[in-house]
Amino acid sequence: MTEGSVQTLLARSFALLAREQPQAHARLLMPLAGLAVALKIDAEHFTVAFTSAQAHLRAVDGQESITVGTSRRTILEVLDDRRTLTEAVLSNAVEVVGPLELLLRAHEGLIRYVHAAVRCAGFPSLLHQLRLTCADNPERETEAHG
Questions:
Q1: CB 84 within 8 A of CB 77
Q2: pTM for the model
Q3: 24 FRET partner, CA 20 to 30 A, in 81, 111, 115, 142?
């Protein structure tokens, strides 16, 4: 994991939530326990596997129950309210594959993650770092979707 990678930023975000918002961290893990989500964000490929106690980031191994593909730019568009998550999915800017029951659990976990993140003092710094990685390499989206 490199310092500016989404994988690194996501790992740091889970650690921040566990430290700064432990109850919210525990709530977000409830619907996610047992899921493994393969993420492809630009050229990065990794998995987030959830237990009832924490999120583990690891290499993709084909055992994931859900796959998600997108770009840093799309993530920022959704976070900045320039595009809704629904719009991003319908336009294929976010590609999500998995059984409906598991997708609903993942969506609930994502909502809980965002609710916890907005209450976490360390998140503005992580968001700033994500913005910098996007600004540093505008071709990243082309690499992943080109």
A1: no
A2: 0.86
A3: 81
Distance of CA 121 to the CA centre of its chain: 18
- pLDDT tens for each residue of 93-114: 999 999 999 999 999 999 999 9
Quote the tokens at residue 84.
């809704």
Residue by residue, DSSP assigns 13-31 as HHHHHHHH-HHHHHHHHTT
> 9, 3, 1: which is closest to 117 by C-alpha?
9
* Nearest CA among 117, 69, 112, 66 for reference residue 89: 69
- Count of positions (residues) in the chain: 146
**CA–CA dist 146, 125 (Å, integer):** 30
Write out pLDDT tens, residues 3-54: 679 999 999 999 999 999 999 999 999 999 999 999 999 999 999 999 999 9
Mapping DSSP to helix (H, G, I), strand (E, B) and coil, where does residue 52 land?
A: coil
- For tokens 């998600």, name the residue: 68
As a whole number of angstroms, the longest Cα–Cα distance in the chain is 41
Q: Is the dihedral of CA 82, 88, 91, 92 positive or negative?
A: positive
